[in-house]
UniProtKB/TrEMBL annotation:
It comes from the Eukaryota. One of its GO terms (molecular function) is RNA-directed DNA polymerase activity. Residues 89-114 are annotated as: Disordered. Keywords: Nucleotidyltransferase, RNA-directed DNA polymerase, Transferase. Residues 101-114 have a biased composition (Basic and acidic residues). This is Putative RNA-directed DNA polymerase. It comes from Aphis craccivora.
Length: 114
């Protein structure tokens, strides 16, 4: 998926600024992430959610999770739940809505009016 690749390249270019050894405060790193990486990822969610496969959706989530782990210096095995983060500003990040549930066995329900 081109969007995930573009976000990965941007995240990689920002790695010297976002990594845990950088002297920049976490809040500033988060702002940099939101302005450069998240602006690439975010339009892919709502605009294309119905058309994105589950595998591509996981790729987008992986880009986001790796960036946030890089910023906070978390290990790779840390849970993805930001609500349990030590950083309150990470707990308040809005969640992207996932792809809609697909019911391919009963397409008639989609055309019925309620």
């Amino acid at each position: 998926m081109e969007t995930a690749q573009k976000a990965r390249r941007t995240r990689a270019a920002l790695y010297p600024v976002l990594n845990r050894l950088s002297p920049i405060p976490v809040r500033t790193k988060l702002s940099i992430y939101q302005k450069y990486v998240r602006t690439i990822i975010t339009p892919a969610g709502p605009a294309w959610a119905a058309l994105i496969s589950n595998a591509n959706w996981r790729r987008l989530e992986a880009v986001q999770n790796i960036a946030l782990r890089t910023i906070t210096g978390s290990q790779w095995f840390v849970r993805n739940s930001l609500q349990q983060s030590n950083y309150s500003h990470l707990q308040n990040i809005g969640k992207m809505s996932g792809p809609p549930e697909r019911n391919r066995n009963r397409p008639g329900e989609l055309t019925r009016r309620t």
